[in-house]
Amino acid sequence: MQIRRVAVVGTGYVGLTTGACLAALGHRVVCADTDRHKVERLRRGEVDILEPRLPELVREGLDSGRLEFIRDARAAVAAADVVFLCLPTPMGVGGAAD
Ligand SMILES: NC(=O)c1ccc[n+]([C@@H]2O[C@H](COP(=O)([O-])OP(=O)(O)OC[C@H]3O[C@@H](n4cnc5c(N)ncnc54)[C@H](O)[C@@H]3O)[C@@H](O)[C@H]2O)c1
Fold this sequence. Notes:
Layout: E1 5-9, H1 13-24, E2 28-32, H2 36-43, H3 54-64, E3 67-70, H4 73-78, E4 82-85
Parallel strand pairs: 1-2, 1-4, 2-3
Helix pairs in contact: 1-3
Bound molecules: nicotinamide-adenine-dinucleotide.
C-alpha cells in the first residue's frame, strides 16, 4: 500500500520529531494538537523542543507543503492512511494506565 498521508496526534517531543522526520522522508504529514498556541507557533516554524536539526526539518516541511499543523485531530485522522498517537497517557483510578 502506498502511504499518501500520515496523521500525527500530539506535537510534543515524540509527535513533532516523528512528524518532521516523516515529512523529511517525503511523506505528507498532518500534525494535530489541542494546544492552540503551540499550533500557531509551529505554523510559523517556531520549535520549542531541543532536538538537533528539528527546527530546520520543521521549516523544510512547512516550505515544501508536506508538513501541516492543525488543531482538529478528527480531520487529520479522517484523511490519513497511517495514524501515530503521540499523546500523554494519564493514569486512571488506582494509578493504572488509562
Ligand atoms: N518523550 C519521550 O522521551 C517518551 C519516551 C517514551 C514514551 N513516551 C510517551 O509518548 C507519549 C508522548 O510523549 P511526549 O513526550 O511527546 O509528550 P508531550 O507532553 O511532550 O506532548 C504531548 C502533546 O499532546 C498534546 N495533546 C494532549 N492531548 C491531546 C489531544 N486530545 N489531542 C491532540 N493533542 C493532544 C499536548 O498539547 C502536547 O503537545 C506519552 O504517552 C509518553 O509517555 C515519551
